[in-house]
Amino acid sequence: MIRASHLTMLLLLAAPASIAFALSMGSADLNLGELRQALIGDGTSLDAAIVRELRLPRALSAFAVGGLLALSGALLQVLLRNPLADPYILGVSGGAAAAALLSILLGLGTAWVMGSAFAGSLVSTFLVFSLSRLDGAWTQTRLLLTGVVVAAGWGALISFLLVISPDGDLHTMLFWLMGDMSRAAHPLFANAILLAGLALSLGLARSLNLLARGDLAAAALGENPARVRVSVYFIASLLTAAAVTVAGSIGFVGLIIPHIIRLLTGADHRSLLPNTVLLGGCFLVLADTVARTAVVPIQLPVGVITALLGVPVFLFLLTHTRNP
After folding, report:
1. Distance, CA of 300 to CA of 142 (rounded, Å)
2. Which of 60, 138, 173, 221 is 20 to 30 Å from 188 at the Cα level?
3. Strand, coil or helix: what is 298?
4. Which domain holds residue 307?
5. pTM of the entire structure?
């Protein structure tokens, strides 16, 4: 186990390095001098256009989405007290996917697809939360089971939309379902949500440390477990909604990244949350770079790469930690 502050410093160096790597790799590889000129030059060259208009927005969006998913995963694992919880377990992504696929099927533009995805995420969030509190009771198990059932319902609707879709739309739909960064041309939205979510989460860091000990221990130390759970649930849901809106469904980031940070530095959320955001962002930037360069000229869905990398990493964590 290493000091959390040391890991933070390493990740703060790794974040710009991963973005620089993403900017330099592609159909036209750039060395550091060419990359620097493309970023700060007059912007009239082909390299400048490629870097500024294509690679930089995509890399910044990938970093934000990775951070959003990792932070959401860390919050949900405390909320549900389940180490296997991830940002898609409560059906948020299912609502987003169903709404986005319906927009694609109707032939609407990218802005409509993203707006529909965000609206679908919010609808699913309020649906799960409302159903889990029908009789006034609210527990982690009830919320989890409600989310699983709602997610199954969204899955059925997604299957129906895929079946009735014309062949010309299926490729776009499947890419979106597997995670696709090619539509991510406006990183400001995702990064703003990430910064706001991190700030709110850090404000709850002490409460999360207490909640991880159990409701009785948290209440005995002056915390209100119910209030904390509601706050964490809505923060995690909005983080997931933003990520799904930008990039579709990308698995394993929110599952494995928090585990890696806990394994390296412990479970103090004051350091775990920012380190999780940094590592999640770096991970997805590198995964997206592999996705668009591994099988040139074909671009793979980034969700395929995160799954290929995430499965062995998670199996390693399961076999090397007593309490994953």
Report:
1. 37
2. 173
3. strand
4. 4-320
5. 0.89
